[in-house]
Amino acid sequence: MAKNQKAKAKMEQAKGKAEEAAGRTVGNERMTAEGKTDQAKGDARQAKEKAKDVFRH
Q: pTM for the full model?
């Protein structure tokens, strides 16, 4: 399960970066903000999984 969550975190981060870049390219502030939000979700998920790993070992 942890690998699945880590992969999901990476996917959210990548999606967010792509969405942010697309938003900047077309000048859409909402899309840029949504991209940053997705990146933050991915970062939070990744931090949570890293914390779990620390306590498992």
A: 0.82
Q: How many angstroms separate the CA atoms of 20 and 26, rounded?
A: 10
Could you give the CA distance from residue 27 to residue 38 in angstroms, rounded to a whole number? 18
Cβ distance 16 to 38 under 8 Å? yes
Q: What does the pLDDT look like over 18-41, one tens digit per residue? A: 999 999 999 999 999 999 999 999
Decide if 46 contacts 10 (C-beta within 8 A): yes
Whether 37 and 19 have beta carbons less than 8 Å apart is answered as: no
**42's torsion region: left (phi>0), alpha (psi -120 to 50) or beta?**
alpha
